[in-house]
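3.2 Worked example (two chains)
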Amino acid sequence: MRRREQRGLKMVMMLMAAFLICVPMAGASDTIKMGVAGAHSGDLASYGIPTVKAAELVVKKINAEGGVLGKPVELVVEDDQCKTEVAVNVATKLLTEEVDVVLGHICSGPCKASLGIYATKGVILMSPSATNTDLTKSGQHNNFFRTIAPDDAQAKTQIDFCLGTLKAKTIAIVHDKGDYGKGLAEFAKGFLEKDKRGKLLLFEGITPGAVDYSAVINKVKRSNADVLLYGGFHPEASKLVQQMRRKNMQTIFISDDGVKDITFIKIAGKYAEGVYATGPTDTTQNPLAIAAIEEHRTVYGSDPGAFFLNAYAAATALLEGIEIAGTTDFASLSKALRSNYFETPLGRISFDAQGDAIGVGFAVFQVKNGEYVEIK
């Protein structure tokens, strides 16, 4: 009886072994995993959700065409709420999920906080919106890429517009003390101080989330500055503009791509009219952009939000880069991204040695009749 049982057990094990050889085991090797990290809830969700939708559309299209390297692409979506402490946990979780690449994070602070974590596993992080210059120029890590121009380029655009187009003579600069807002404000301050056409009257930080900003607004009012340049996001910008206009201040308000979003217009209401903000150059007439926007309307029944095209371009570049490299290996994929051009809704782009996108830039927009219009 014992021998018969042993022979039966041996036969079962042989059959199982044969089955495992013939049928691949489910696991990470059977898919290309792309993490999508960003603010998907909270005040800044309007910046992160468009990236999730862009990733879904790109992946749906690529999977319909056979996937990448013959494998389907799988999305692993995680919400960091644009908070650095949450982003660290998100990065750790995505690595435990064995993602091959990450689309995100949306905000500069979370990118900074998590970049080193991804670097330990050789995972490339590509953001559609994080503009902090140190992310690519600090030399600390080489696994960060982006499909948006950095803050120094954005700040230069702002100061050139204020002094050249608006003919402003005096500028007050206010920021939210964060990696993104303060970093941008400091670049603007530097460009202004080097330019003899204008004078800096005030440089001050505010606390995000406060209800009342009358203290700093009164300082701006007393300075009699021609322009208030704000570095930060739409929740604080909307409060600043509302409180300024209620005090009958006609000071020109200009901000950044953290404010160039329909959510700012909705919150600020009538006070948003006339506000200027810098943002990625309008490429909505690009045939691929037209197709991507229409695809979003068809699938989701609405127009896409902020950074959708930048995210669509990032997802495209990451997945096409893997196909070109023939692997998700860090060195090979990095080389593929830096040595090839990708046709995207932003146009034909590539990446320089630092990971900054080649072929993208900033423009100035103004709220007219309830929507942002590019200033030509």
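3.2.1 Second chain
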Amino acid sequence: MRASTISRDRALELLKQFNKEAFHIEHALTVEAVMAYMAENLGYREEKNYWALVGLLHDIDFEQYPDKHLEHTPQILREAGVDEDMIRSVVSHGYGICSYVEPQHQMEKVLFAIDELSGLIGAAALVRPSKSVSDMGLSSIKKKFKSKGFAAGCDRDTIQKGADSLGWTLDELIDKTLEAMQATEEEIRGKLLNAGP
């Protein structure tokens, strides 16, 4: 079983040390919650906290080093006492884009797949009257997925590669990620309020 060498409180403190924009904090909290939900539902309940922490820390250096994303991550995490397994998992989410570390464990493949997709779903929620994922369905997300101009920064090829690496169809990946975001939306809002400046 994978166990963490960093507490959730310390991980959040570290995230806030390197990230000041609310958007980046919210994305980290969203990916944390989706990863925890996925662990629970894919048979990795004992590793749920580990999955969640990898999600929380995955973009630790992005705000300060957007053009060198993941280059500074290993040093930042090592200095905070994070073990090499977790560092490897965090860095693997940038495979083929800004990292040579290929996702191998199921958890790494899930992170790779849901990182961009959760951003796309979050952007789609913001243009809805409800500003929520609660009333969204697969078809509305697929429409946004096909519209290349919408949330153009969310790499569709990476999302598809993520689904492929998991052996899931794109629809399955979208369904599972949307379900996770719907189930954790209130929790994420609460954590965002508590994260503070």
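3.3 Remarks
The chain has one domain: 8-195.
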